[in-house]
Each structure stands twice: as C-alpha cells, then as structure tokens.
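Hypothesis: this fold can be encoded by more than one sequence.
Test: take the structure tokens below, design a sequence, compare later.
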C-alpha cells in the first residue's frame, strides 16, 4: 500500500504582525504544493528522503531522535513530530518533494507537516477530518518552533483564501471566483520570525502611543482589503498592499533587499507589493493582474522570483492499494 498526500504553500496578503495582537489577517494558499509519499519499509526503520532538498535520514521513534548527515536536517523534526501523532513506530519509507522555497515565509514547513500527517494517518487507516489535521499540524509547529500562529497550518489544510483572527473561534474562508495572480520575490536570507515578532513587541512597549495605532491601522487595512478582494477591485487591492507595506516598514521589519524587490515590482507594473510574512529577509508579494512576466524578469535580476496564483485545494490524499 502506498499513500500520497499534498498540501499547498501560503502567502499572507494582509495583516502579518498585527495578527499577533488579535487583528485579522488574510492569507492565500498558493498553487505550489509539497508532496509526501508513504509506503512500507520492511527493515522496520523510518526512512525519509526529501528529494528536492537532498536531505535523507532515519527517524528514531522511541528515542525521539533524528539520524542524518544533512546540514539542512532541521525540517526532519517536523516530520518526526508529525508521524508521532498518527503512527505506531513500525517501518516506513517517506519520500518528499517540498517544491516551495524553504525559510522564505511561504509556509514550507506547514505544508510538509500537513501533508505528512495526512499521508501517514491515511496509511494507518486513521480517518482525520480537516479540522483534526489542522489541529495536529499546529501542535507540531508549536512543538518544533515553540511559537507559531495557526495561520500557516490552517491555510495549508483548507486551501483557498482565509480570513483569520488569532482569538476567533472559527476561520472564515472567503469565497471568490476570480484569480489572484501574484509574484513572490524571495531571498535566501531567512528572517527569524520569533525575533521579529519580539522586536515589534519591544517597540510597542517603548512607544505604545505610536505603535498601537499602527497595529490598529493594519487591522483597518485588512478590513478594507477583504471588501476589495471580494469585489475584485484590483486597483484598491494594490493600493492597500502598498499601505500595508508602509505600515510594516514602520514596525521595523523591512530590509534593504525586501524594499528593493517591493519597489522593483511596483516600477515594472505590479498593482501593489509588500513584505509577506515576518520580514527581516524572506519574501515579498506583488499583485500582478497584468504584465506578470516582465515583473518576474525584473525581480529575478536582483533576487529570486516565482509566479503563483490562489489554490482552492487544501490538503489532498490519494491511496494506492
Ligand atoms: C509570520 O508568517 C506571520 C507573523 O504575523 C507571525 C505570526 O502570525 O505567527 C509575523
């Protein structure tokens, strides 16, 4: 028996950082997916091969440890923690294609986590609904990263466009029937989400009367952006992205490289562009209803870029007997 599960990457369209203070955020699932294939290993070992990242290793279930010579083996922690939720420790071959730039704020670890939980649970004939997969995946991110909002794992599980408030009971999936064509510009400089979130908190403690209104303003941008997206008001979506970027800059999470990409995208035809995710490195998102190829070429001249659109599909599982 073999199971293949996949789950999408994500990009935050509006509201990062302010979401930490209970403001809403809007994120989209991208049509870039991580794939996880699970089959039996008769050696009774749990072997992982992440083909596109050139990472291999064995997971020691009993001792909760990882044996791997790969310098980038950190991602194996997510896989070990994921399978522990839904597996008894018997032999498995796990073959993964991530297909998403890692460390770029695009939710690669969440996509791998969601797809691993889905594949291994289906392999073990454990029926999980989407809310259970999302819950386990968020627990895994918390175990490995210590702090994480449920945004990445929620978007990866459900797909589509998600409006989320950290202290809300329910997530809201925004129903749209138009595309959201974007270009993601990314650096290989990883922003440390924990440190960036802590940095904003420190500035907020020092300048509460300045930073609190900025956080409130980001919340207002998100509310306006929700309406603009639902109405497919392209000009407004772009303008609100630019405003959101300016507000993120005032929170201190921008970098020269990100700024360079943001303005390059705007100057070559993007309707709007901003940091996506925690900042401090990582990625930008440019909204490109027109002239997408030109924008990609201009971003590739300075950093890396990929074209993406919204993926309506969240986690998917296929079982081969
Ligand atoms: C990081 O992708 C988004 C932040 O808002 C942090 C979080 O929501 O956990 C910066």
């Amino acid at each position: 028996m073999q199971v293949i599960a996949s789950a999408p990457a994500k990009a935050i369209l509006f509201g990062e950082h302010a979401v930490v203070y209970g403001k809403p955020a809007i994120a989209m699932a991208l049509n870039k997916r991580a794939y996880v294939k699970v089959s039996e290993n008769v050696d009774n070992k749990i072997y992982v091969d992440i083909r596109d990242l050139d990472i291999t290793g064995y997971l020691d279930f009993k001792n909760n440890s990882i044996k791997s010579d790969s310098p980038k083996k950190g991602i194996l922690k997510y896989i070990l923690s994921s399978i522990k939720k839904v597996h008894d420790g018997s032999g498995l071959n796990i073959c993964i294609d991530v297909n998403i730039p890692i460390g770029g704020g695009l939710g690669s670890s969440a996509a791998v986590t969601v797809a691993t939980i889905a594949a291994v649970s289906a392999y073990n004939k454990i029926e999980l609904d989407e809310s259970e997969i999302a819950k386990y995946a968020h627990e895994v991110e918390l175990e490995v990263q210590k702090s994480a909002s449920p945004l990445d794992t929620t978007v990866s599980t459900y797909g589509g466009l998600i409006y989320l408030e950290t202290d809300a009971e329910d997530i809201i999936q925004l129903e749209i029937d138009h595309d959201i064509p974007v270009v993601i510009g990314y650096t290989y400089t990883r922003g440390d989400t924990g440190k960036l979130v802590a940095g904003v908190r420190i500035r907020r403690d020092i300048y509460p009367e300045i930073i609190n209104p900025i956080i409130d303003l980001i919340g207002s941008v998100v509310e306006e952006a929700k309406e603009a997206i639902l109405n497919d008001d392209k000009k407004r979506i772009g303008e609100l992205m630019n405003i959101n970027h300016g507000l993120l800059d005032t929170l201190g999470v921008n970098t020269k490289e990100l700024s360079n990409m943001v303005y390059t995208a705007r100057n070559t035809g993007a309707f709007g562009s901003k940091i996506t995710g925690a900042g401090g490195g990582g990625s930008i998102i440019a909204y490109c209803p027109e002239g997408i190829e030109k924008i990609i070429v201009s971003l590739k001249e300075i950093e890396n870029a990929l074209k993406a659109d919204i993926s309506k599909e969240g986690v998917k599982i296929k079982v081969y007997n």
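The first helix runs from residue 75 to 86. Residues 12, 16-17, 19-20, 105, 148-149, 151, 193, 197, 277-278 surround (R)-mevalonate (CB under 6 Å).
Hypothesis status: open.
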